[in-house]
Structure formats: structure tokens, C-alpha cells
Design goal:
- Keywords: ATP-binding, Coiled coil, Hydrolase, Magnesium, Nucleotide-binding.
- Helix 4 packs across helix 5 and helix 14 runs parallel beside helix 16.
- The N and C termini lie far apart (163 Å).
- It is built from 16 helices and 15 strands.
- 48% of the residues lie in helices and 17% in strands.
- With 497 residues, the chain is α/β, with parallel strands linked by helices.
- It is elongated and about 140 Å long.
- It has three domains: 120 residues, no CATH class; 158 residues, P-loop containing nucleotide triphosphate hydrolases (Rossmann fold, 3-Layer(aba) Sandwich); 82 residues, no CATH class.
- The structure holds adenosine-5'-triphosphate (ATP).
Length: 497
């Protein structure tokens, strides 16, 4: 024991050792400060602190941005759907809103505000979520948003393997049961989709169309939903394209609404005329979500010929918009609009593989005006003709609008409907006029008779015009002949003189 005490240095020895170490360290620091440039010193400092903080810290942070590799991130979207279900007492603020203009008294829905923490527990892990926002460089894009997920470093693997897949499947089941559907329209000035609650009463039940055609559409939609694995196995994107064509007022938009209600899919209604170019189109389309319908109405008036591409600069998708702004004056003299090839690229080109479970619907009043490239087999999977009202369609409309399945005036009305081309919209308009079935049907018959007379009058007028045209031609010929004869006489006179 005594020998142990003997080995412990005295206080004065310890103090002098400390003094010499600190002097030495000061000396080294002064030499290093003199010899090593400040930027290199900062670099070494930061590396040291990074190393120590990562080595000793027990936390780990995941960043999930709203876009992933130039397209909308499905992981981000799933978290957006899932997280509001985890709002609890520890959440300090909450976003509330109701976008249902049909029901302003509906309880508001919760959302996650920026910079607010939401705590979740999963299989014994504590998970801390925060939604962040940072200003976008691009002046017409909305701010970039991303989720920060903080967890224990040791849970990192389990978060990736179990927790994030769990969030995706929960979000999927929430979305499949969604009560309200949204109708999105693209705001070109704000460069973002704007949504409103979609409450259209149309259903396959109320749709007046050929029953066999209706059944085949329903079967096709059912099959599409069930065939995720099939689409993967044949190497095709899980998409289905419908082309609805026919005269105005025959129910093309109503069919789109019925499909959305049947599938419980949101609708993205895009007006191609406002899209600046193909690159813009790619951005817009990749920011739509899965389980949705992309609707492009009046497609015959929407695209430019692919030849116009040669006259314009087509900006690259990775183009920085700041660059666009700087160079725009030099390179883009006008907005080229969307080309057919740009659109086709999204239907069955490379970009078609972006996103799953999508329905693309084009409508047109003039199928014959469409570019054959769009109609080529495999482009639009199903072509549906929406035609004039048939007797069966009329019965369906009478049932929907008047609540009657039969009536003494039915036979007569059906005969009239077969003799005149009348649209379901026109029939519906007449049937809506009155609640009394007798009066409503009489009004419809009157309307059809008036239309028939009008058609006859127009045709008679056309015939009359045709006769007048032919008479004018004959007269002109006569006049020319007369002029020729006059010329001849004149010539002869000259010769004689
Ligand atoms: N086949 C139909 N079944 C039931 N209702 C219909 C049908 N067709 C038209 N209607 C009624 O007529 C209205 C107009 O129809 P809709 O807008 O769907 O026609 P459209 O073919 O899309 O016309 P457009 O080509 O002008 O866009 C609808 O609100 C609906 O009430």
C-alpha cells in the first residue's frame, strides 16, 4: 500500500505536466494556424466534428422529397395520406380545410402543417416526422416539400424493410376506400394541379347507352383493376386508354364521370391548349397520382403536328428554369404547344411506364379528324362510340328523369326517336321540363316533331339552293356563249371592214 502511494505523482508534478502540455498544444496550434490556410483548417475541423457526431449520435434522419428522379414520389404521397391518421396529443398544430363546395358544413379534414412534428410508434420504434418546405429555384414552381423522418440509428434497417412498406399499404387501403373524389385542373400560371371535390351523380346505372356496350365497359374496367400482375408479366405499363367519340351531347363526359365513380379514381382534366411544350407536358403528367383518370377532351383540336417541332427548341426535362428564363428570349420565340409525338410518348412510349393504375381518356366529336398515329392498334385500347339516342336509351332516361318504366306514349315516342337523330342530352332536357310524365313525354314528342320539320326545312332549303346554283351555272354559260358570239360578230365586222 505504502509503495502504491509512493508511485502517485505529487500535486506540483501534475500541475507542471499540465502547464507544459497546454504550452505545447498552444505552440502547435499557433504553428498550425500560421502554416495551414484557414479554408483547409475549416475543412479538417468539419471532418472531425462530422466523424465524432455521427459516431456518437444515436439518431438517424431519412429525407423523403415530393419528387423522385424527376417524377412525383409515391413514397411521399403515401406518407401524406398516412400521416394525418397519426395526429395525436403530441402534435402541436394542425392544418384543417374543406374543399367540398357542395357541402360547406362538412367537417374539415386534417392535414400536416409545415415544421410540425408528428410522432408515430411502430413495433416498438419511435418515429418522428416533420414536413419541411424549401423555396424552389424555379420561379413558377411551387416550393419543394419533403418529409424528415427521425429515428434511432439502430432502427434504420427496420424502417426501410418494414415501416415504409407498411405506410404504403395503409395509404393504399385508405385511398381505395376514399369517400370523396377530386377533380383536378391544371393552373398554368401557378404550375400546379388545383383540386375541387368531384361530386357527379353519373353512374353506369343512369347512363343511357347500349346495354351490351355498357356491360363490356364494366367488364373491361374490372379486368383492368385485377390485372396488375398480368401487366407486369407481359412487360406493359398498368394503364388503359379509352377513346370516346361521337356527336356533342351523347354522354362522353357523363361516361367519364361514371367511370370515375365506379373505380373511385380522381380525374385530372387537362386542357392541352395551355401547355407550353412537350417538356411542360411531361412535368404536368408526371405530377399526377396513381389510381387516377387523365382526361383530355376534344383531342382533335389539341395537338400540333409533330413537324412543328423542327422549328422550335424543345427544352430538356432537366433544364433549369432559371436557364430557361435567361436564355428563353434567345431560344424560344413562341410557345410551340404540345406535339402529337410528345403526347404519344406518354401513351405508349418510354414515359408511359411512369405511374401505375392509370386510365387515359380522350374524347372527340370528330374521330375522322384524328391523326392515324393516335388510332393505331395498341395506342387507345378501347374505342367507344357514343351515338344518338336509341329506344333503349330513351327508356333508361325516362326511368332516370321521370321514374317510369312504361307509359302509353312510349311506343309513339320510340318510333319518333328512331326516325330523327336526337341526342340523349336533348331528350334529357325535355324530360326534365316537367314532373308530370304525360306532359314531359308530350313535350319531348313536340320537340322531336319540331326538329324533324326543321331538318326537312333545312334539306328543302338546301335543295332549293342547289337548284339555284345550277341555274346560275347555266346562266353564266349562256352569258359566256353570248359574249363569245358577240366577239365573233365583232371580229367578223373588223375583217369585213
Ligand atoms: N348517354 C347519356 N346518358 C345519360 N345522360 C346523358 C347521356 N348523354 C347525355 N346525357 C345528359 O346530357 C348532358 C350532356 O352530356 P355530356 O356532356 O356527357 O355530352 P358530351 O358527349 O360529353 O358532349 P360534348 O361533346 O359537347 O362534350 C349530361 O349532363 C347528361 O345529363
Amino acid at each position: 500500500m505504502a509503495s502504491l502511494f509512493k508511485e502517485i505523482p505529487s500535486m506540483s508534478t501534475l500541475l507542471s505536466a499540465y502547464a507544459s502540455i497546454s504550452t505545447l498544444s498552444m505552440l502547435i496550434r499557433t504553428i498550425l494556424n500560421e502554416m495551414i490556410p484557414k479554408r483547409m483548417r475549416d475543412f479538417i475541423n468539419s471532418k472531425f466534428s462530422d466523424f465524432f457526431s455521427s459516431y456518437f449520435s444515436s439518431d438517424f434522419t431519412f429525407i423523403i422529397e415530393d419528387r423522385w428522379q424527376a417524377v412525383h414520389s409515391e413514397t411521399f404521397r403515401a406518407i401524406e395520406v398516412y400521416l394525418p391518421t397519426k395526429i395525436g396529443p403530441s402534435t402541436r398544430s394542425l392544418l384543417l380545410g374543406n374543399n367540398d363546395s357542395n357541402n360547406i358544413t362538412a367537417p374539415p379534414k386534417p392535414g400536416i402543417p409545415v415544421d410540425t412534428k408528428v410522432i408515430d410508434d411502430f413495433q416498438g420504434m419511435r418515429l418522428e416526422w416533420t414536413l419541411r418546405e424549401k423555396e424552389a429555384k424555379k420561379y413558377y414552381f411551387r416550393n419543394k416539400r419533403f418529409f424528415e423522418l427521425n429515428c434511432r440509428k439502430k432502427d434504420r434497417e427496420r424502417v426501410v424493410q418494414s415501416y415504409l412498406p407498411y405506410i404504403s399499404s395503409t395509404a393504399e387501403s385508405i385511398l381505395s376506400k376514399r369517400e370523396t373524389l377530386n377533380l383536378y385542373t391544371y393552373d398554368h400560371e401557378g404550375s400546379m394541379w388545383e383540386s375541387t371535390v368531384f361530386k357527379h351523380p353519373a353512374s353506369f346505372e343512369t347512363l343511357a347507352m347500349d346495354p351490351d356496350l355498357k356491360d363490356s365497359i364494366i367488364r373491361d374496367l374490372d379486368l383492368f383493376l385485377q390485372r396488375k400482375k398480368y401487366f407486369q408479366s407481359v412487360g406493359r405499363a398498368w394503364k388503359r386508354g379509352y377513346l370516346l367519340y361521337g356527336p356533342p351531347g351523347t354522354g362522353k363526359s357523363t361516361l367519364v364521370a361514371a367511370i370515375a365513380n365506379y373505380l373511385r379514381f380522381h380525374i385530372y382534366d387537362l386542357q392541352l391548349q395551355g401547355v407550353r411544350n412537350d417538356s411542360d407536358l411531361r412535368r404536368i403528367l408526371t405530377s399526377t397520382t396513381n389510381r387516377s383518370i387523365l382526361l383530355i377532351e376534344d383531342i382533335d383540336c389539341s395537338t400540333k403536328s409533330s413537324r412543328s417541332r423542327t422549328h422550335t427548341r424543345i427544352p430538356n426535362d432537366d433544364d433549369n428554369d432559371d436557364d430557361d428564363r435567361d436564355q428563353g428570349n434567345n431560344k424560344i420565340s413562341f410557345d410551340p404547344g404540345v406535339t402529337l409525338s410528345g403526347l404519344l410518348n406518354f401513351i405508349d412510349g418510354l414515359w408511359s411506364s411512369c405511374g401505375d393504375e392509370r386510365i387515359i381518356i380522350f374524347t372527340t366529336n370528330y374521330k375522322e379528324k384524328l391523326d392515324p398515329a393516335l388510332l393505331r392498334p395498341g395506342r387507345m385500347d378501347v374505342h367507344i362510340y357514343m351515338g344518338h339516342c336509341t329506344p333503349a336509351g330513351f327508356k333508361k332516361l325516362a326511368d332516370t328523369y321521370l321514374g317510369i318504366k312504361d307509359h302509353p306514349l312510349f311506343k309513339c315516342t320510340e318510333e319518333l326517336i328512331q326516325s330523327v337523330a336526337i341526342t340523349p342530352a336533348e331528350v334529357a332536357q325535355q324530360l326534365m321540363k316537367c314532373e308530370d310524365a304525360q306532359l314531359a313525354l308530350e313535350s319531348l314528342m313536340e320537340f322531336i316533331n319540331a326538329k324533324e320539320n326543321q331538318i326537312k326545312e333545312t334539306e328543302a332549303k338546301k335543295d332549293e339552293e342547289e337548284v339555284i346554283k345550277q341555274e346560275i351555272v347555266v346562266l353564266r354559260k349562256d352569258v359566256k356563249l353570248g359574249e363569245k358570239q358577240d366577239d365573233e360578230i365583232e371580229k367578223r365586222c373588223v375583217y369585213l371592214t
